[in-house]
Write a structure and sequence with these properties.
Radius of gyration: 18 Å
Mean pLDDT: 78
Largest sheet: none
Number of strands: 0
Length: 131
């Protein structure tokens, strides 16, 4: 359970990291909203229910069956999104002769751009670090 959610969080990180360089920003923001608002949210809910079940607070009789269904759905959504992100990265870098890909160009993404991307997703900006 924890490893599935960790992998889902990793894909979520990739979604945010690729936002500023996406060729279709509107589609990228919609994809991020869907991921964080549905799939990842369901994964966090599943973690909460699992913890409650382990503590004996929640005693749903079909818990294992429900948990497995939710994990399968989360894994499937994560795999679909990971494939989509990988295809977008390939599209952005383009193929070269011989079928190999060029290494991705490292773009200088400022902290301000990332903060703006997060704000568009409805995520509050992090507090400034004390100096």
């Amino acid at each position: 359970m924890a490893s599935a959610l960790n992998r889902a969080l990793g894909v979520g990180y990739s979604v945010v990291k690729q936002l500023p360089g996406s060729p279709d920003l509107d589609a990228a923001y919609q994809r991020a909203r869907r991921w964080f608002g549905k799939s990842l949210s369901d994964g966090v809910y599943l973690l909460r229910v699992t913890l409650r079940h382990d503590l004996g607070v929640e005693t749903e009789p079909r818990f294992e069956q429900t948990r497995m269904q939710m994990l399968t759905t989360l894994d499937s959504a994560r795999d679909d999104l990971a494939r989509l992100l990988a295809a977008e990265r390939v599209q952005a870098t383009g193929p070269v002769a011989g079928g190999s890909r060029r290494p991705a160009q490292r773009s200088e993404v400022s902290g301000n751009r990332v903060v703006r991307a997060l704000r568009r997703l409805g995520v509050p900006a992090p507090a400034p670090r004390p100096t």
